[in-house]
Write a structure and sequence with these properties.
This protein is of the alpha+beta class. The chain has 40 helices and 34 strands. A hairpin with a 4-residue loop joins strand 20 and strand 21. Helix 31 packs across helix 37 and helix 34 packs antiparallel against helix 35. The longest helix has about 50 residues. The relative contact order is 0.10.
């Protein structure tokens, strides 16, 4: 028999329960310090709950569908609810709150059961009607299959044709058919009904919301005096009570009571259940309305590629596939084309209730601080320690692609040099980008790097690259129109976090395919055998003139091709799997959206217009080119590049910045082979170096390139001739390229303020100065401070790591017996200064206890120190690095100890104030404490149990036994069918009676009595560990540990862990985020860790390079301060079926070809939901680079207008006038 205290009486109470000790003792009061601590606790809880309430801009469906998120949010709701419900029974003067709390759980159970039963009933009725509809639809399908339609005709009476049962039919016929007719295409159904109880999470949320609303209504309107709900102003009824219960009173639910000679009336207690039943009917009716409207259909799994919700397979095929099916698509009765997707879009409200007007399942920025990235770290370790230096995929590329036997095709009498010779010797590596429409005039090409992160940023950059013309803003708010580049070069790190098929497809290829659709013949599974894949099947007018279609004329076909091409370099993230994914998806695939990919190796040489070359190098993970690559580029430099030509070098990593930032010794500099190539075969020809990897924009120019005048120039010339006579003539041919970093293709932002403005480059330590950066240092510094508050919110996936680490540090110290009594003795008046002193004393004592006698805590503390010191940036000096890392670790240990002290003090405060119920044989409490489970269950039995008994009388044991006896007595007079029905009915009653006997409510309330269980375990442990009841906060008797039951210690540790992490998680996130912010701004270190935690998707950039008719290179750096977060389908998108129909669709002569996507006026599928000026790209930097330094002065500074190109650069000024608005 559970002993329970007195609670609120069910009808008219004659007594009140004893007040808590805090109320009876007048000398105890709530000080302002207690209020401050309570507010601090609320902030901690709010910080812990923030990711679950608002996942920091992440797609809520993607976040809420993860198992990790659901587990963490469930635990959080449980422990917070346990704390709240533990306090409710002590509101003795507010009986309504107790009654409402007792009503909540049974009402939730009843609501869930009623909603499931209602949905089941609706689904049963729908199936009965659906059978008749399916029979009629089968007759229509049979009649439709009997008619043979002409497959060569694409339109019938102006209606677009789609596929049904393998045959084309008109759109009018499809739109007029029933849902069943539409859903049965070919052999399988396109759609299926969602289970009636799904999604169960939403059903539970709706039940909890309804139950909470009714409980609040009960607490607000119930009158203990009337034993009814208040409806009169004289009784204190508010507007809500009168509006809800007055109609019920007039409807016959009134209850009158004679009080002191006056007759008063209110609403009967059963009115609350009438309101509940009406709400259940309304919710079930809404479900029925959606059910019969066809809104509960979803795509079948095998046909899910029709929907953009399935990912990225809906922008592949074109009109040629609307009438021809093959493979897996034929099984579903449709193809993968956007035409069918648009047909379903037109019929979406009737078909599946989804118009697909926005991109579905778009991925958010990669969460770098996540336990799931352990796999990526393992891949990196394997590549660096196992394969690096032992196996290099670059050496294997030459074995399969080099074909020297084609030299016989080279015409006799020609010298073994030139672009034609190189293309034969190195197929798929050397390309002449001077196509027939460019020739020797000017040409444009684009550069972008570090793509494939979040959808918003990656797609926005790809969309701008795909536009035929791009309108940009200048520094003076003028407009400048730039054309699309004939070639786009991608400078590495194609997809994050690691190179797997899923990340390549969803983070990289999808964005470019949505920006510029691939040809109709494109298949994802296809492996290219011959590159380039020309001519293009399904596209017309792709060449400048009529050309041969023989495979041997591939170079001539590429020379005549009018469409854009793409070339990609692998970055360090692409090398994590040994270049396997890059080789499969880049070197063995023909199309990146609408860009043709002709390359066959991970490096290439492009011959541009006006004697310019672009050389792309693969540095792999060794930070240098291999020997085969060195020989290839040396051959290109010797036999292809003229003396008057200029070279643009492209690598993935900007080692000129990294080596200078880490103060790398000259002998240990990266790119030794590459520097040897530059100093010998490319000496004096390298004018520009471009790289990515750092996710911002910067440009460095050599200080030596500025000519000196007057006596300074003569003095320098004499000094150089005297000291280095052999270099006096070679000085004019020395490489002094401009160094450009542009890694803003979609990845998270890197700050610019952590890198030096002046750097030393190369073995000669030549001086370079930064003349442009985006964003500027002021904005970058302001963004870095966001780590203090945002780290915890943006990196909630790391909660498990923080919780385990912090609890491991303090695990050897629990329990802290007598900690609250020690505080009261030290600070009886709650002085805040004494609180700080006491807390400091306790934390130091606990830390020394860990160092002296801790076991598990000592191991965790050492590991924590070790990990944090190792992860401290190596660019810092070793003593400072060690001291800063140890300080970081000590801050975490102090935070963990403070959290433990707070939790242990709270437990003993609950016991001391009698808020929780404990059984202690050695003590007799002055006031009988209150147990959560028993008090709330008593309220339920007193107020509501009789209602369930009246509703379900046959569930009770007496009624069930009487019915069972009646059946046995009359069984002889029953027929066989009657006996079967009687026994079945009796079995159902016994089952219901057994279910009714399960203590579900009592078990649920006990589950939420977590604080009481913690307090009881704490008391048991302290009674066993402390000798004769003395305080043993820091000195447990080791001989008494064996007296503690292992189950008691384990259950106490597990229970206290739940409340400990409420404080530990936000504390750890705050400490780590503050450490990152301080490191970024004081030491200018941890640039990667400090900005990857913020996952900023704005501040993107890419380059447009223009070789003008004068032979000079114009570099336009384009920046995006903001990227859109919400997208809609462009109604003018040329890939739309209706748009194709408006412009004529297919060619009148050849109905199997269409206009290429790169010739569309609107090539991109999605546009921002709301146009804004901040989404418009702006020219953040401009440079005019001549082929030779002596030809003209290099433009490397502030943008000023000129007559020809609109800009000119004057040295020494920062061209970036970035606004300082934060995220």
């Amino acid at each position: 028999m559970v002993e329970t205290p007195a609670t609120c009486p069910p009808v008219a109470h004659e007594f009140l329960p004893p007040a808590p000790a805090s109320v009876r003792n007048a000398d105890k009061f709530i000080s302002w310090l207690s209020v401050a601590l309570l507010l601090l606790l609320i902030l901690f809880v709010r910080s812990t709950a923030a990711p679950f309430l608002n996942p920091m801009g992440e797609p809520r469906m993607a976040v809420s569908s993860s198992a990790y998120f659901n587990v963490m949010s469930t635990l959080f709701v449980w422990i917070v609810s346990s704390a709240v419900l533990s306090i409710l029974p002590h509101f003795s003067s507010h009986c309504n709150e107790m009654i409402a709390a007792a009503l909540f759980f049974p009402m939730v159970f009843a609501t869930v059961s009623a909603l499931i039963a209602g949905r089941f009933l609706v689904r049963t009725v729908y199936y009965c009607i659906h059978i008749k509809r399916a029979a009629l639809a089968a007759l229509k399908i049979t009649a439709s299959n009997s008619r043979q339609l002409d497959a060569s005709s694409e339109h019938e009476n102006g209606a677009l044709k789609v596929i049904r049962n393998g045959r084309p039919c008109s759109l009018h016929a499809v739109s007029d058919s029933s849902v069943t007719d539409l859903s049965q295409i070919e052999t399988g159904q396109v759609t299926k009904l969602v289970a009636f109880h799904r999604p169960f999470r939403i059903l539970v949320k709706s039940s909890a919301l309804l139950s909470s609303s009714i409980c609040f209504l009960y607490a607000h309107c119930w009158s203990e005096t009337l034993s009814a709900f208040k409806v009169s102003r004289s009784d204190g009824a508010g507007a809500v009570c009168r509006a809800v219960f007055s109609p019920l009173v007039f409807g016959g639910m009134a209850k009158s009571l004679d009080l002191n000679g006056s007759l008063q009336s209110g609403a009967h207690e059963a009115s609350i259940w009438l309101i509940w039943a009406a709400s259940i009917l309304i919710i079930s009716g809404s479900f029925a309305q959606d059910e019969f409207a066809g809104k509960h259909y979803s795509l079948a799994p095998e046909c899910s590629h029709l929907s953009t919700a399935a990912g990225w397979d809906d922008t592949i095929d074109d009109d040629a596939n609307v009438t021809e099916l093959d493979g897996k698509a034929a099984k579903c009765g449709k193809d993968k084309s956007d035409d069918v997707d648009d047909v379903f879009r037109l019929l979406g409200k009737k078909f599946i209730g989804n118009t697909h007007d926005s991109p579905q399942e778009k991925l958010d920025m990669v969460p770098w601080y996540s336990i799931l990235l352990v796999y990526s770290a393992f891949d990196i370790l394997v590549q660096l320690k196992v394969f690096l230096g032992r196996f290099d995929a670059r050496t294997q590329q030459t074995k399969f692609s080099r074909t020297t036997n084609r030299l016989t095709e080279f015409l006799p009498g020609k010298s073994c040099c030139g672009i034609e010779y190189l293309q034969i010797v190195y197929p798929g590596c050397v390309f002449d980008c001077k196509t027939a429409n460019v020739m020797d005039d000017d040409m444009w090409l684009d550069f972008v790097a570090d793509t494939g992160d979040g959808f918003n940023s990656s797609y926005q950059v790809a969309r701008l690259l795909a536009q035929p013309t791009l309108t940009c803003r200048t520094s003076k708010n003028k407009k400048k129109i730039l054309p699309r580049g004939s070639h786009v070069v991608i400078g590495g790190d194609l997809a994050y976090p690691d190179p797997c098929p899923e990340s390549y497809e969803k983070r990289f290829f999808r964005t470019f395919e949505d920006a510029l659709a691939p040809p109709p013949s494109f298949r994802r599974e296809s492996i290219s055998l011959i590159k380039p894949a020309l001519p293009v099947s399904g596209w017309r007018n792709c060449f400048a003139k009529s050309v041969s279609t023989k495979a041997s004329d591939s170079q001539d076909l590429l020379h005549q091709y009018n469409g854009p091409c793409a070339f990609a370099l692998p970055g360090n993230h692409d090398w994590f799997d040994g270049l396997a994914t890059f080789s499969r998806y880049i070197l063995s695939r023909d199309w990146l959206g609408g860009w043709l990919m002709p390359q066959q190796r991970s490096y290439f040489a492009l011959k541009l217009a006006q004697g310019w070359w672009m050389l792309g190098f693969d540095l792999a993970l060794s930070s240098d080119i291999d020997i085969d690559q060195f020989k290839f580029f040396a051959d290109v430099a010797t036999k292809g590049i003229e003396d008057s030509d200029a070279v643009i070098m492209v690598t993935h990593e900007p080692w000129w910045v990294i080596d200078s930032d880490f103060r790398t010794p000259v002998n240990d500099l990266a790119e030794k082979n590459l520097r040897e190539l530059m100093n010998t075969h490319l000496n004096g020809k390298v004018r520009v170096r471009i790289a990515g990897d750092l996710h911002h924009y910067t440009r460095y120019v050599p200080l030596r390139s500025r000519p000196l005048r007057g006596k300074f120039a003569k003095r320098r010339s004499r000094l150089r001739s005297a000291t280095h006579p052999e270099e006096s003539n070679a000085a004019q041919t020395k490489n002094e390229p401009e160094l450009i970093v542009s890694g803003g293709g979609g990845a998270f932002l890197h700050g610019t303020h952590t890198f030096s403005r002046n750097i030393k480059v190369g073995e000669m330590q030549e001086s370079y100065r930064r003349v442009g950066c985006f964003p500027n240092e002021k904005v970058s510094r302001r963004l870095s401070w966001l780590n203090i508050w945002h780290f915890r919110w943006r990196n909630w996936r790391l909660d498990v790591v923080w919780a385990i680490a912090y609890f491991g540090v303090v695990s050897s110290l629990i329990p802290l017996c007598g900690i609250y009594e020690d505080y009261l003795q030290f600070n009886p008046n709650h002085n805040p200064l004494l609180l700080v002193v006491w807390l400091s004393k306790i934390v130091i004592a606990l830390f020394m206890q860990i160092m002296a006698a801790g076991r598990i805590s000592l191991i965790f503390a050492i590991l924590l120190f070790l990990v944090l010191v190792i992860m401290t940036d190596m660019k810092m000096k070793q003593p400072i690095r060690l001291l800063w890392g140890l300080s970081h670790g000590f801050a975490h240990i102090v935070a963990a100890l403070c959290c433990l002290v707070f939790v242990e003090c709270a437990i003993e405060w609950l016991i001391d104030e009698g808020i929780v119920k404990i059984h202690d044989a050695g003590k007799t409490a002055a006031v009988e404490p209150t147990a959560l489970a028993s008090s709330l269950y008593q309220e339920y039995m007193a107020h509501f149990s009789h209602m369930f008994i009246n509703v379900t009388p046959l569930f009770q044991g007496n009624a069930s036994n009487e019915f069972h006896d009646t059946v046995h007595q009359s069984v002889a007079s029953m027929s066989a069918v009657q006996r079967l029905h009687a026994h079945a009915y009796a079995s159902v009653l016994r089952l219901l009676y057994w279910l009714n006997g399960i203590p579900l409510l009592q078990a649920t309330l006990s589950l939420f009595d977590l604080p009481g269980r913690i307090a009881q375990r704490h008391t048991d442990l302290c009674s066993a560990l402390c000798v004769e009841g003395a305080a043993c906060m820091l000195s447990h008797d080791p001989t008494r540990v064996i007296l503690v039951k292992r189950t008691t210690m384990v259950t106490y540790a597990a229970a206290i862990f739940l409340y400990f992490v409420l404080l530990a998680i936000p504390a750890a996130g705050g400490v780590f985020g503050t450490w990152l912010a301080l490191t970024l701004n004081i030491f200018k270190a941890q640039y990667n860790e400090g900005f990857s935690s913020l996952r900023i998707e704005h501040w993107k950039n890419f380059l447009k390079l223009h070789v003008n008719k004068k032979g000079d290179l114009e570099m336009y750096a384009l920046g995006l301060r903001r990227v859109p977060k919400h997208w809609v389908k462009d109604p003018q998108w040329d890939g739309n079926v209706l748009a194709k129909a408006r412009r004529g669709g297919f060619d009148k002569i050849d109905n199997k070809t269409s206009v290429p996507s790169w010739a569309w006026r609107k090539p991109s599928k999605w546009i921002p939901r709301r146009e804004s000026r901040k989404f418009t790209p702006e020219i953040i930097d401009f440079a005019l680079i001549p082929k030779r330094p002596s030809a003209a002065a290099s433009c490397d500074g502030n943008l000023e207008e000129t007559s020809e190109n609109g800009y000119c650069a004057s040295a020494g000024n920062n061209p970036i006038r970035a606004r300082t608005s934060s995220i």
